[in-house]
Design goal:
The protein is an alpha+beta fold and about 120 residues long. It has two helices and three strands; from the N terminus they run ααβββ. The termini are far apart.
Length: about 120
């Protein structure tokens, strides 16, 4: 194999040929296509998982805020999640009025996550 490659190099040098052959370029393009076909779906799945994790985190933050407010005596109707309702997230108290049975829901597009002891 090594002798064949050396012979090809020598022939190219003798005839003034430079660059890559068409076969070499096709092989590189095929390899890049295969890598892209594998990498793109994996990348999209990572993005979707990150969005779901972000919504779950917002729901957990809302549950922590609700627990603290309810423990201080704030009425469930007066809970304010406006500081968490950003970046497309909507946070609401889904159910419950005490620290033992509340459930907070976070929604972002088609992703819905809940957090709290009453969920």
């Amino acid at each position: 194999m090594r002798n064949y490659i050396n012979a090809l190099k020598q022939r190219r040098e003798e005839h003034g040929e430079e660059g890559f052959s068409l076969i070499e370029l096709i092989v590189v393009v095929v390899i890049l296509g295969i890598l892209a076909a594998i990498a793109i779906p994996i990348f999209l799945n990572i993005q979707n998982q990150a969005k779901e994790n972000a919504v779950q985190t917002v729901a957990a933050n809302g549950a922590s805020q609700a627990a603290a407010s309810l423990a201080q005596g704030t009425a469930a109707a007066d809970l304010d999640f406006s500081n968490l309702s950003t970046d497309g997230n909507t946070v609401t108290l889904k159910s419950g009025t005490t620290t033992d049975d509340f459930c907070v829901q976070a929604v972002n597009g088609d992703i819905t996550k809940t957090s709290g002891p009453g969920c």
